[in-house]
Amino acid sequence: MKYKSGYYLQITRHLFHGEKFQHFSKNAKWLYAVLCELEHRFTSEGKRKRTDWFYRSDKDLAKDSQMSLATTKRVKQELKNNKDIIELWQMHWKDKELGKKSEKHVTAFRILN
């Protein structure tokens, strides 16, 4: 049965057969798929607000992908080296009251492919 009821994730078939992904490890392909799901969940389009990026801490991303924190960090670096597929950058917030940057760092992600 091709169409089932429930939630679906649209993902590029290049992940399985494409040249851009052929050098990725299995963990990198899995993390990319997880990031695509997170993109659908955390980005938005609308009249008031439009975002094409989202953020996650390493700890949250490890939990989302069901990988260890060390593996998540290593695989994230593998993805970071492929700038034509995904953009990653470190970010943190500025406290409105104190005017200081937050101590908690997160990674922002933008899926390009």
Average pLDDT level:
85
| CATH architectural group | Orthogonal Bundle
Query: Which assembly state applies to the chains in this document?
Result: single chain
Please report the distance between the alpha carbons of the first and last residues.
28 Å
| Total strand segments | 3
Q: In angstroms, what is the radius of gyration? A: 16 Å
Question: Approximately how much beta-strand content do the residues carry?
Answer: 5-15%
Number of helices: 4
Explain what this protein looks like in three dimensions.
This protein has 113 residues and is α+β, with helices and mostly antiparallel strands. The chain has one domain (14-111): Arc Repressor Mutant, subunit A, CATH 1.10.10. Helices cover 36% and strands 13% of the residues. The chain has four helices and three strands. Strands 1-3-2 form a three-stranded antiparallel β-sheet. Helix 2 (26-42) packs across helix 4 (69-80) and helix 3 (58-65) crosses helix 4 (69-80). The longest helix is centred in the N-terminal third of the chain and has 17 residues, at 26-42. It is globular, with a radius of gyration of 16 Å. The mean pLDDT is 85.
